[in-house]
């Protein structure tokens, strides 16, 4: 069953709305990460978490 065809303006409006929702999700994730970092900083766990993360990184390959 075919629906009514979207006008170019409706299609563009729909794409803009989708992008706005996507940006809202990205912003929410960023704010969550900021809150987690601030909580770790306040509890004194941030420095140990950073040190552990740095130790877990694989060594960079040597330059030839």
Largest sheet: none
Rounded mean pLDDT score: 90
The percent range for helix content is: over 70%
Termini, distance in Å? 63 Å
Q: Please mark out the parts with pLDDT under 50 across 5 or more consecutive residues, or reply none.
A: none
CA-atom Rg in angstroms: 22 Å
Structural class: mainly alpha
| Secondary structure tally: strands | 0
Report strand %: under 5%
What do these coordinates show?
The protein is an all-alpha fold. The chain contains two helices and no strands. The longest helix is centred in the middle third of the chain and has 36 residues, at 8-43. The chain is elongated and about 55 Å long. The N and C termini lie far apart (63 Å). The model has no long low-confidence stretch (mean pLDDT 90).
How do the helices and strands line up, and which of them pair or pack?
Elements: H1 8-43, H2 46-56
Describe this structure in a few short sentences.
With 64 residues, the protein is mostly helical. The protein has helices spanning 8-43, 46-56.
What keyword list fits this structure?
mainly alpha, elongated
């Amino acid at each position: 069953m075919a629906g009514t065809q979207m006008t170019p303006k409706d299609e563009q409006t729909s794409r803009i709305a989708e992008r706005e929702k996507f940006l809202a999700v990205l912003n929410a994730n960023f704010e969550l990460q900021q809150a987690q970092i601030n909580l770790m900083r306040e509890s004194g766990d941030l420095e140990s978490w950073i040190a552990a993360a740095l130790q877990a990184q694989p060594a960079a390959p040597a330059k030839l």
